[in-house]
Input
Amino acid sequence: MAIKSSLSNMVLVLTLVCLGASAAVAVVYAVTKDPIAAANVAKTNKAIEEVVPEFDNNPSEEVLNIVADLQNPSETNKVYVAKKGGEIVGYAVESTTKKGFGGPFSIMVGFTPDGKVYNTSVLSHAETPGLGAKITDKGSHFITQWKGKNLTDGSVNLAVKKDGGDIDAITASTISSRAFCDAMEIAANVFNNISTEKQ
Amino acid sequence: MSKFKYLIDGIVKNNPTFVLVLGMCPTLATTTSAVNGMGMGLATMAVLICSNMVISLLAPVIPNKVRIPCYIVVIAAFVTVVQFVMQAFTPGLYETLGIFIPLIVVNCIVLGRAEAFANKHSVGESALDGLGIGIGFTLALTCIGLVREVLGNLSVFENKFSSSDGMLVFVLAPGAFLVLGYLMVLFNKLKDRKKKA
Amino acid sequence: MNTLIVSPSPHVHGKESTRKIMGDVIIALLPAVLVSIWFFGLSAIHLVCVSVLACVVFEYLIQKFLLKGRSTVGDLSAVVTGVLLALNLPVCSPWWLIVIGALVAIGIAKMTFGGLGQNLFNPALVARVVLLVSFPVLMTGTAFHAPESGYLFGNADFATTALDATSGATPLGFVKEQLAKGVAMQEIMATPGLSYTQLLFANMGGSAGEFSAIALLLGFIYLLCRRVIKPWISLSILVTVFVFAGILYLGNPDKYMDPVFHLLNGGLLLGAFFMATDYVTSPMTVKGQVIFGIGIAVITVLIRTFGAYPEGVSFAILIMNATVPLLNKFQPKRFAEEAQKK
Output
């Protein structure tokens, strides 16, 4: 039933199939490009809304790229600035830790301009369901304990209590809790660098 | 009647998960909850129907020696399409299943049906076969996901019926193997009983 | 030609001999059971009774209604599994935890494979690991401590110091965390209640069967005298742990636990004496048994020292269980095989 497997036939058919497939993918890409971008922006905006006080600007348009570690200026973190009536009401800092139990995870940390944590939100993670994944549990003590803590003046020792710090870890998920502290520390460094950059 | 048989075959007699035991990677990895399993099953079904139809159309003009590369290109194209569509319109589901979607390309079921069925049958029959196998796969994944969710997280379709934690082992990888094994036993037992009756 | 063919396990045992062996194992486990009852009173009795009862009931029900075979409850193997399971659980486990454990041990690890003699993995250990992974909060940390009033004679010192310092307070977990903080081994051992004599007779944190090294040793000697088990597996585990941990300790005494602590702590003795030596799930030849023991010891020390869990004996035994069919192929050529070739 199939046509003869001569070289020219094979090259021709394979090329045509590839062209057809690429064309189909290209069309779908063009159609879905805008909805995908919109979905991503919506996701970021939702996370920003959760972590900073009420605002009336569009923080996705006011993005600063801030270095967390001054020794390593090639890696920058995104900072979204939230304003109400022109006044800055908060900064939402994206922060990624590589120390998670199931691989890297990203969180969004909201700071008020005086350096206090307003709220946090997990953007993406691969922690163990039922254990480390409790970092996404918004009402849990682990998440709420951060609210109002000032991470920028050195008053909080950013480590779990097991390691001699001030943070209550999630029971049976010490590694995820440590990673979360690491992400918070990165975010705090980023926040500090915003202020230094402005001066 | 005979056409209808292709559909039923895919669900029971040739059930991809419990009978053919194909496509184990997504089966084990994505069934942490019923919704995830169903999402993966439906995505695979969409790819399967489209690729089956296109391949049965193209089969007469594809030279024998390059048929596998051609099938893979067709399948990969449809997987990418499904990925874009999910990313655009169901971002939540895409988040959970994201890394497994590209793996549909190497899911043995899709290539297996192309090779074993679609290139020998008409477009309509191939579509029915894809639909049947797809439904069988989706049902199997949803069942596995449901059992794992009920035991591991004490919830049904993400509605928790108890606030305490379940047996975590069922949400983790070992539980996937256990549940798959016991469901396979059950399925084949019921199937045999039906045959005898 | 008449040739005697000896195939690797599983072998079919005569019912009477199985029963006799199992009876001996139960007698050997009694000292350990009695010690935990001595310390924890009612809660330990509750644990052992629920565990044995659940194992026997599940064995009977599955045999009768699912497999529709003759009941094998009489061979006492379910009772042994029940006692071993109880010794592997925290004393204050809730009843449902024990029942789930029994269902996993009998239903998944034993009956699914075809009952006694067919199982690849030690049933009580499978149950322990499934519970450990499923309910980490109940199976580790403070769950190991009975309420203060539960102690029959007091050792509140260790309990309170350890509990204050950490939330996971088996001696192994406690020491591992202290080491991680940079406290040297000698300083840690100065913690009240954490002396070697204490560990030898009765240490406070751990599963029901991990309390007293002496009690476990008594049972082991009884089994040896009755010729129920041969000592090779247990000896090779203990020697290898001692040597391997000793090398690490000599390399850097500030960072690693000393070998005696390794030997006396956690489930090592229970595992080496009673779990690893299980007939069905251990190799047949002496050579195989020694390799089996060394493997268990190395994996245990690796998990304890570098892994995320403080204790690794159960994982180590299960991993090595999987290699048993392979180890059985290491057998020296038998007379019959030589004869067959000619």
Remarks:
- The helical segments of chain B are 2-11, 24-30, 34-58, 67-89, 91-97, 108-116, 123-153, 173-196.
- Chain B has a mean pLDDT of 86.
